[in-house]
Specification:
Blueprint: E1 5-9, H1 13-25, E2 29-33, H2 36-46, E3 50-54, H3 62-72, E4 77-82, H4 87-96, E5 100-103, H5 108-120
Parallel strand pairs: 1-2, 1-3, 3-4, 4-5
Helix pairs in contact: 2-3
Length: 122
C-alpha cells in the first residue's frame, strides 16, 4: 500500500506536535500548514490524499479552504476539526463535501483511523 499523504492545517502548536508524532509513527506522510494561505500553496503543490483542517484556520478560513479543495481536487477527502461548531456550520461543511467533523479535543487514534478510512473511500 502506498503511503497516505496527509495535509494537516492547524495553528495550535501542541495539537500539531502530538498529531505529527502519532502520524509519523504509523508510517504516514505528513505536510503541515499553520494558516490558510500556506495550506492553499501545499494543496496545489503536494496534492494530499486526505486533509485534516481546523475550521478556525487564520487567513483563508476553513469553509473557504474546504470549498477550494473540492473545486481543485474533488476526490480529496477533508476532515474538519473545531473547538466549537454551530449546527449551521456543521450542515454547511457537510453540504460542501466534508468527510467528517470532529470537535476538539479529539481522540487522536479516532482521527487517524478516520483519516485512513477516508483515504480508502472512492
Amino acid at each position: 500500500m502506498e503511503k497516505i499523504k496527509i495535509l494537516l492545517i492547524d495553528y495550535e502548536e501542541d495539537f500539531i506536535k502530538n498529531l505529527s508524532e502519532r502520524i509519523k509513527s504509523r508510517n504516514l506522510e505528513l505536510d503541515l500548514a499553520v494558516n490558510g494561505n500556506q495550506a492553499l500553496e501545499l494543496i496545489v503543490n503536494v496534492k494530499p490524499n486526505v486533509i485534516i483542517l481546523n475550521f478556525d484556520t487564520p487567513g483563508v478560513g476553513g469553509m473557504e479552504l474546504l470549498r477550494d479543495v473540492k473545486i481543485i481536487y474533488p476526490d480529496v477527502q477533508v476532515i474538519i476539526l473545531s473547538r466549537h461548531y454551530s449546527i449551521q456550520d456543521r450542515m454547511e461543511a457537510l453540504v460542501a463535501g466534508a468527510y467528517m467533523l470532529f470537535e476538539k479535543p479529539v481522540d487522536i487514534d479516532d482521527l487517524i483511523n478516520t483519516t485512513v478510512q477516508a483515504y480508502k473511500e472512492p
